[in-house]
Amino acid sequence: MPTAASIRDQAAIAGIGQTRFSKGLGMSEYEMAVEAIFAACEDAGISPREIDGLVRYDMEQTDEEQLLAVLGNPLLRFFAGTAWGGGGSASVLVVAATAIAAGMAETVLVFRSRARGKNSAYGKDPKQGGRYWEKLATSLPGLNQWHVPQGLVSAFQEMAMLSMRHRIEYGTTDDHYADVAIAFREHAMRNPNAVMRAPLTRADHHASRMISDPLRLYDCNIETDGAVAFIVTTAERARDLRQPPAVILAGAMAAGSHHIRLSTMFERSWEEDSPVRVARQLYEMAGVKPREIGAAFFYDFFTSLVIIGLEQYGFAPRGEGGPFAADGGLSWQGGRLPCNTNGGQLSEAFIHGFNNTSEAVRQIRGTSTAQVEGCDLVLVAGGNTDPTGAVILRRA
Amino acid sequence: MATGPTRETYLTRDLPLPQPSLDNAAFYAAAARGELRFQRCTPCRRFRHYPRPVCPYCLSRDFSWDLSTGRGTVYTWTIVRGPTLPAFEDELPYNVVDVLMDEGVHFVSQVLGCEPDEIHAGMPVEATFVAVDDDITLVKFRRCA
Question: What angle do CA A368, A371, A375 make, to 5 degrees?
Answer without folding.
Answer: 110
